[in-house]
Amino acid sequence: MVSHIEKSRREVARKLRPDTRSTLGQFMTPQTIADFMASLFGLTIHSAEAQILDAGAGVGSLSIALLNRIHRESPDIQKIKLHAYEIDPLLAGLLKQHLSVCTERFAATGQALEATIIEEDFIESAVIQLYAANFPRFDYAILNPPYRKINSASRHRKLLRTAGIETVNLYSAFLSLSILAARPQGEIVAIIPRSFCNGPYYKSFREMMLRHMSIRRIHLFESRSKAFGEDDVLQENIILHLKKEPQQPLVSLSTSTDGTFADYHMVTVPFEHIVKSEDREKFIHIPTAGKEDSAGLMNLFTHTLASLNIGVSTGPVVDFRVSQYLRKHPEAGAVPLLYPGHFGNTHISWPKEGFKKYNAIASAPETEKQLYPSGYYTLVKRFSAKEEKKRIVACVFNPGHIPAQWIGIENHLNVFHCKKEGLPEKIAYGLSVYLNSSAVDNYFRKFNGHTQVNATDLRGLGYPSTDQLEILGEWAKSLPHITQEAIDHKILSLCSEH
Length: 498
Hints:
Elements: H1 2-15, H2 18-24, H3 31-39, E1 49-55, H4 61-73, E2 79-85, H5 89-108, E3 112-118, H6 122-129, E4 138-143, H7 155-162, H8 170-181, E5 182-193, H9 203-212, E6 214-221, H10 224-227, E7 237-243, E8 250-256, E9 265-270, H11 292-298, E10 311-314, E11 326-327, E12 334-338, E13 360-362, E14 371-373, E15 377-381, E16 394-397, E17 406-409, E18 413-417, H12 425-435, H13 438-447, H14 455-459, H15 466-477, H16 484-496
Parallel strand pairs: 1-2, 1-4, 2-3, 4-5, 6-8, 12-17
Antiparallel strand pairs: 5-7, 6-7, 8-9, 10-18, 11-13, 12-13, 14-17, 15-16, 15-18
Helix pairs in contact: 3-4, 4-5, 6-8, 8-9, 11-13, 12-15
């Protein structure tokens, strides 16, 4: 039966049009991953009847993996009611066939399986039913939800708000509704992108999840292309095992490169290592193999930007909104405009000949509020390509190298400042050294599954003290060129003096 379902899944995956798959966010679960997800449930309910939810069931890989496990290991559960949502007619037809075979097999051993296939939009159906008196509460929910952004003015977004859910992607919406539908001690296992672990857009979702559920297990895949080999999606993925109970003190962390689990590894860590108690953003950190040394180093740097009187903001110049003021070359009445393309090894390289973007922006009443007074600033790229070696790339704007009264900082950069003015010189260079270290980059990757570096993410890091930043800055200023090896060695030596 399992091999037949997997064959169906592969055949359907080949038949689905790429545009349809993109629209619906369809990425069906390989059988090895489905079996692994089913293995995570505790199956601890003490009842003769179990309610199961599969939101976005596809051909039934997840549902049937869980049903097979219950059939083998929980004979005391005499009746299982499965509620399987699938809106795609092709998939729903195959799902019906697979579940009918499963129902017959259960009946042969005295267990009753009542499988209901619901060919409706899960969000619309669940939001309405959450307020119905007879809405079933689930013991187990297993899901691989669709992955697609939700437009802020869409019907889905408005429906979710009526249920008190504020989120930006279908996967977090499906998981939120499943959380609300779970009964006390209910369990959820879901495979989702790890993009919710940090950043402001998913803060409400993180708070909601942590308020209702205990994190029992996190399994990390290297990338979606590894876990879902047939699908052209490149987000890093995690499998979450949640339980509707107060948070337990320990969390199991496991990793594998892909869905074969050939290099599977598991450790247990305190929950405090996953979500810091003092973190208002509720970032979710996922320590991974090979990064333990970086985490240890970062734990030595405990200062916040606020305690250092340093601010960080997104560059205020959105070029397409001020296109009439942009200049390809410096000219009278214009000031330097800085893009990621102006980054050099340690300093900003400006102006740039043959640059596809712009080198200057006209100083005018319409742009003056978007400009910073000239001074020392530490700049960080907001985006990096997936294949780049580092996520965090920092550089210093030195006013001595580029004489100007004002500068423009484009929106693809983050800028470290002191109350919207320049930083002390040594601090600016010290921040650049620290942010360019491998320790910071590795630590950042623990809780950031995409290539974007937001100002909120940078505020969530721990930083060296003012004295330590000045030491790093003095060292950086004394060198004409700094290698990655030299930076990492300097950070290690700073830690040894801590």
